[in-house]
Amino acid sequence: MIRPPDGRRRRIGVMGGTFDPIHHGHLVAASEVSHLFGLDEVVFVPTGQPWQKESVTPAEHRYLMTVIATAANPRFSVSRVDIERGGPTYTLDTLRDLRAQEPEAEWFFITGADALSAIMSWKDVDQLFELAHFVGVTRPGYQLTDRALPNGSATLLEVPALAISSTDCRRRVAGGVPVWYLVPDGVVQYIAKYGLYREGAPAPTNGMVGPAGGTAQDEQQEEAG
Ligand SMILES: Nc1ncnc2c1ncn2[C@@H]1O[C@H](COP(=O)(O)OP(=O)(O)OP(=O)(O)O)[C@@H](O)[C@H]1O
Ligand SMILES: O=C(O)c1ccc[n+]([C@@H]2O[C@H](COP(=O)([O-])O)[C@@H](O)[C@H]2O)c1
């Protein structure tokens, strides 16, 4: 854990996402907010069951790709709170669980322009702003606005524009088009190793491991005997 040298409260960013797969748009957004807000840590939190998405790759694959993508940055970490909790993923629970781990810290929730504009549809949205300060970042193709949000609850930030989406990465892999340099190298290799996003890939589920959804962890356990 990185502690501030002057004894002030730790400042922690939360980057929630489905990360199916994680790409450089996510990483740049987290890095920029971390730099500009002087964050001590950014916790990436892969969703368990993202209730507003139809079908997603089993959570263990998304979790492991997130670990691979963030491993080199000492300020980045990955939390399993949304995966372990089970049931639909609500940011209210994410923030409550994380805050319980470190109640003294100052918390910031990072979202792209698309997610920020949908925030009023999130569960118990009014309570969210008491748990974290929201940081909305620009994303190509979306309008960044805090019009619907309570005054002072969010800061809007311009970050380097990366027109990358997980949807596009999945389509590219399915069509045999490379995703090199859109996602970290280790993630390209992970996708190839487990045949993700191709026909016959681990069954998409609502987040958790599905009937045909063997995961990297299953495989490691099998190998270990
Ligand atoms: N290129 C990007 N630039 C800035 N923010 C981004 C970018 N891509 C995603 N985000 C933000 O990262 C968070 C997690 O996004 P998510 O994991 O849903 O990725 P996605 O690319 O939007 O996925 P999908 O295409 O499957 O909907 C959201 O707050 C989203 O707005
Ligand atoms: O709390 C909610 O109801 C809610 C609804 C949709 C999305 N979110 C959160 O928004 C973040 C980005 O989600 P997504 O689906 O765009 O990957 C992630 O942390 C989700 O848990 C949260």
UniProtKB/TrEMBL annotation:
Pathway: Cofactor biosynthesis; NAD(+) biosynthesis; deamido-NAD(+) from nicotinate D-ribonucleotide: step 1/1. Its EC number is 2.7.7.18. Residues 205-225 are annotated as: Disordered. The keyword Cytoplasm does not apply. CDD domains: NMNAT (cd02165). Residues 14-172 form the Cytidyltransferase-like domain. One of its GO terms (molecular function) is ATP binding. It is an enzyme of class 2 (transferase). Keywords: ATP-binding, NAD, Nucleotide-binding, Nucleotidyltransferase, Pyridine nucleotide biosynthesis, Transferase. One of its GO terms (biological process) is NAD+ biosynthetic process. It catalyses: nicotinate beta-D-ribonucleotide + ATP + H(+) = deamido-NAD(+) + diphosphate. InterPro entries: Cyt_trans-like, NadD/NMNAT, Rossmann-like_a/b/a_fold. The keyword Transmembrane does not apply. Belongs to the NadD family. Catalyzes the reversible adenylation of nicotinate mononucleotide (NaMN) to nicotinic acid adenine dinucleotide (NaAD). This is Probable nicotinate-nucleotide adenylyltransferase. The gene is nadD.
